[in-house]
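Final report, closing paragraph on structural work. Over the funding period we assembled a curated collection of sequence-structure pairs, and we close with a single example.
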Amino acid sequence: MHLLLYEYVENMAERRGPHREAHLAHLRAARDAGKVGLAGALGSPPSGGAIQFKDATEAEIEAFVQADPYNRAGLISSYRIEPWTLV
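Its predicted structure, as stored:
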């Protein structure tokens, strides 16, 4: 299992509007394919996001990031992929 952690640009809550539905559709497609479990914004207002990937390789997660409408719109300032071991 992995976590994908996004850092968002400043004023994300205001800037994400035109891309939000496409981003959510992208997440739903990954969930429907059995790759994504939980996902959500971090902070209030949002400063980042966390997405739980299961049964996905780092290459698949990287491809997800590159295709994410938020990333394509320049709304993700950085990201990292971390192995996640539940206890």
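The domain at 2-83 is CATH 3.30.70.1060 (Alpha-Beta Plaits). The chain has one domain: 2-83. We thank the funder for supporting this effort.
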